[in-house]
TrEMBL record:
GO terms for cellular component: cytosol. Pfam families: Rrf2. The lineage of its organism: Bacteria, Pseudomonadati, Pseudomonadota, Gammaproteobacteria, Arenicellales. InterPro entries: Tscrpt_reg_Rrf2 (IPR000944), WH-like_DNA-bd_sf (IPR036388), WH_DNA-bd_sf (IPR036390). This is Rrf2 family transcriptional regulator. One of its GO terms (molecular function) is DNA-binding transcription factor activity.
Length: 135
């Protein structure tokens, strides 16, 4: 199963946007992420719809933050892309009548749920401005 790296990629872009005095174009962001500007536009459209960024049209325009990094949490951005599982680990459902499989799924599911809740709680307290303190 492929890892979903949208969160880390978007966080990267948002920190750059917070440090920039100029709008960033889809081409600039695409070069930063080594991806096509069309992919960037899809990512940015989700952030724009959620109200975290906006566009400045025309020559010299591009994407800009709609809020300061201090007012955005990692959880805010995670939620833009869905509340799917944070883990690529999965439970099996091939032998639904097997007592061992049921036991493993129950306990592994509980561990994964607990770990996910801890991660989400931490994301809720982590502001993007804290991520920008790399200098």
């Amino acid at each position: 199963m492929r890892k979903d790296s949208r969160l880390s990629r978007v966080l990267h872009v948002l920190i750059h946007m917070g440090a920039s005095n100029e709008p960033l174009s889809s081409s600039q962001i695409g070069a930063m992420l080594a991806t096509n500007p069309a992919v960037v536009r899809r990512l940015m459209a989700s952030l724009s719809k959620a109200g975290f960024i906006t566009t400045i049209p025309g020559r010299g325009g591009g994407w800009v933050l709609a809020h300061s990094l201090e007012n955005i949490t990692m959880l805010d951005i995670h939620q833009v892309f869905g509340d799917g599982s944070l883990f690529t680990l999965g439970l099996t459902d091939e032998h639904t009548d097997c007592a061992i499989e049921k036991s493993i799924n129950r306990e592994l599911g509980a561990v994964l749920d607990e770990a996910q809740q801890l991660i989400l709680q931490r994301m809720k307290t982590l502001k993007l401005s804290q991520l920008a303190e790399w200098q």
